Write the structure tokens for this entry.
Amino acid sequence: MTAALRLKLENIVKEYPGCRANDGIDLTVEAGEIHALLGENGAGKSTLMKVIYGVVQPDEGRMLWNGHEVRVTSPAQARSMGIGMVFQHFSLFETLTVAENIALSLPPVEARDRKRLDERIREVSERYGMALDPRRYVSTLSVGERQRVEIVRCLIQESTLLILDEPTSVLTPQEVSSLFATLRQLASEGCSILFISHKLEEVRNLCHNATVLRQGRVSGDCRPAEVSANDIARLMVGNDTPISTQVTAAAPGDVLLNVRALEWKSNDPFGTSLKKVALELRKGEIVGIAGVAGNGQDELLKALSGEILVDTGSISLDGKSIENLSPDQRRDLGVAIVPEERLGRGAVPNMSLADNALLTASGQGLVGRGLIRFGRVREYSQEVIRRFGVRCNGENSTAGSLSGGNLQKYIIGREALQKPRLLVASHPTWGVDVGSAVAIHEALVQLRDAGAAVVLISEDLDELYQLCNRLGALCEGRLSPLAPTSELSIEQLGQWMAGDFESAEVSHVAA
Amino acid sequence: MELLTNVLAATVVAGTPLLLVALGELICERSGVLNLGQEGMMLMGAVAGFVAALTSGSLVVGVAAAILAGIGMSLLFAFMAVSLAANQYAAGLALTIFGTGLSAFLGAGFVGQSIDGFSRVAIPFLSDIPVLGRVLFNQDPLVYLSLIAFVGVAVFLRHTRGGLLLRAVGEDPEAANANGLKVLTVRYLAVAFGGGMAGLAGAYLSLAYTPLWTENMTAGRGWIALALVVFATWRPERVVLGAYLFGAASILHLVLQGLGWTSSTELLAMLPYVVTILMLILLSWNPARTRLNTPLSLGQPYRPGR
Amino acid sequence: MLLLERRPVDSALMRWASPLLALVLTIITGFCLFLAMGKDPVEGLKFFFITPISDLMGLAELGLKMAPLLLCAAGLTVCYRAKIWNIGAEGHFLMGALGASIMAVWLVNADGFWVLPVVLLSGTLAGMLWAGVASGLKTHLHCNEILTTIMLNYIALNLLLYVVHGPLKDPYGFGFPQSVMFADSALLPALIPGTRLHLGLAFGLLAAVVVWVLFARSFIGFQLNVVGQDHRAAAFAGFGARRLTWFAFLVGGATAGLAGASEVTGPIGQLVPQVSPGYGYTAIIVVFLGRMHALGIVVASALLALTFIGGEMLQIAMNMPKAVTGLFQGLLLFYLLTCDAFIHYRIRLKRPARQTTMAAKTALGEA
């Protein structure tokens, strides 16, 4: 106990109807310490964070702030104490300017003098290498810049504890290193940082200490630099879950999908337009598409699925042009889609799993003469549940009642059973437990081995490098060239993610 | 010239109830709440204002009663749509149906009675300006009140912290809550303001425009105001413009008759509604344009926690 | 303090108990209202709910009012399931009445079994035309259907008034705004001889059966449900929103149009300005009260039909304003939506923000 204790949590319990999100959690953070909070989705990280920041109140437990017991009842109080928070889905208002956003979280007195506030924003942002123009509208900022606004907002309030929730999931590798530089600078000045993540390498790289959560409890503490990523992963998932998939080599066949000069202009002022997207995909291969969220991933998926019809350019499947076909017509030709949002797009939350099978699999003999064949729907649904190990109370449970991983297995299974020739999957393992992620990866590889072509859109670079034959990146609606995974360095991919396609001399780094 | 001035003055009068109710709804929608109950709140305002003025003998008491009635109705809506997070469409419709029924019931004994409504008060000097003076500054006090309300709303939205708060809550209640803003309080206040303005608009009809009470006397003005707010893409200046435009449409048959152009009154009475649809078409055919200004959380119920 | 808390699973019991609860609350409010007005509440409620349906004649009158409500509600159910907020049943209804009347006046000298079907069909088509306008405005010009359908209601009303005051006015009608009486061949046959109850009720019941089949068995019904619950999932699945919107609107227009046609060819027998006491609006309440379910709307339409007759009865028997009908309907819908909140939420006592003692925990029990 050399440094001063900044934050100490004792036996924090928070219960929601039907789940105990935090079950007796202890945590200490010292001044100037970068402390990692690790755990799978649903392990209780977000809840604990909300407790510290005063968004929710714990049912039991004590919180000590600089040695004094406190009760944080609101974010405003947390901020006035010196606790700052950077949310994963930013808490910024797009239609307001940077300065207006920051003014909203300051006490009215401090926010009144706008000129003074602008100066402070400039001053603070430059000192920590995060240049910001206070007059710009947030809607015009990139994701990385928005994160800076959140951090600067905390610094202007002179936070002595900064909580960052999965801050790197939205950044390119280059942006990640500059963020880390900023965080190290802050820590060296005495600011404590609580860094929430599930990316182990980053944590080993940045953090002094780590607390690992599993199912609402602390499953271990460690010094991340001194233990292996594998050991930390075991603390996160327990001993009985496989941690990774063994991926066999692929044997690509003929060209299946050919996308040429795809153009689509978004009429949504906050949307992304697709520009000159070209892509060639062979049977029996997985092509990965990296990129920071909001750079056209969703639009590309919709262009392939038929939810949007492109303005110009061609999409051909096995030589047949499909760019003017609707989603159901494309599905009949063997195009299967797994969208990013499981609930609310891939599945209807309040409908049963059986009804959700009918959503895309109606062409599998589930409908006859306009009437639903309920028996067949049930059978189909049961088969998906059985073959893909979906944990649920049978086909009548609602989609919304399943965990993220199980619902995703169901959705992938629903598409896989239709024996697609092309599968486009977006972020299939986002927010999914490790066991389900492994099962989903296996399903994708099996489809590939059965001769299907797979497009995998993901922000998880580990996943992309593990599964894909070739990789590319989307930036502002443009698609980089695709390079064989084994020949593409992570630095090069990072440049592509940032939109720098020209310096595309593929560096030959063995992966 | 004389005719034009008269027509313009009549336009302002006809546009004033629309302006009042639309300004209220603008604030309400900016907080992310769509209140389809304008018609019901206006009717309650109209009947409350009329009955209170008739029994007390004071127009001011009538106006106050109308505003209170509007606020009371809007709080019922807020309870359903904000506190209970009910579907805002359904709750608003319920408010309109309820208000229509209740106002007809309460006013049943007062149909056919009449009072002396608001009369014109010329503002010294300003009313001497050619044309504009007669059009804007030789009107009844409620017209002036509507102009003051417009300036107030415009300034509030653009230049005050309250306006910033309102816009923030309307754009993203989740983020607002994470920032420690009191989403439900802001929404309650916005809905109540909308209710008060709708009540006032109702009072304008029963105390100034046609100083008497008849069932359903709003004749769809609450709905037109809702369209008006969309048409104005949630900007106060455009609400003024639109309100007077609709005002002009609704008096057009009088003008045409004045010019000796005789046609069926029923056909001409359709005009404001046809104009409303045309406006909606004009505005909506390009969804991107509307989207730019739409309060992003409009119509979405919000419950904090979780 | 009381706290509203989201239920982990929606309450199926509350979904069906809510309308009953709303009815009870409405009756309690009505009771208080009678007291406040110095009338005998028991007597009043009896006149409202019991007296009107205590004999065959009364029951026939109930069925008479039920027919247009049920028809309109059946069409609206199709729309509301898909979250298409068609408020235009009143307009479709008026147009249906108008379309049928124009045809019936034109065929006033015709005779034959085909006259009635042609008249009904022209009313149905007129309703569909009116709904089609709103549908086109929504699918092709992105206009909000709530506002357009409301405006179309007002336009339809004025159109009807124009026609009944002008082109279709009976020249020998002593200046009254009404059309000539239709020929017998254009009138709906009575269901129960000696009463005014006509074939319209059978149309209504048939429409309810169709709605049941649509949503319990058919794929298009499933698609409408998906569009309503989750339009993004519908787009993902490739259920054409435009096609479904047209379908819903046209069904809504057809049923309400038929209702209007049945009204002029049934009890009225001619076109008059007051052809609808607001059936199209009341049908909205029927749909919500009936849980957007075929059987539910049959029951709800009977209840709301009763409010029309009950209101008239109170006017006659107790000298109450006729507006009590609208008040009752408004209260019912208001209470219904409030009670509906408890499908998704439950009330529980808010516990103190932080507890460290076991005593406080046990005091709360397993809650």
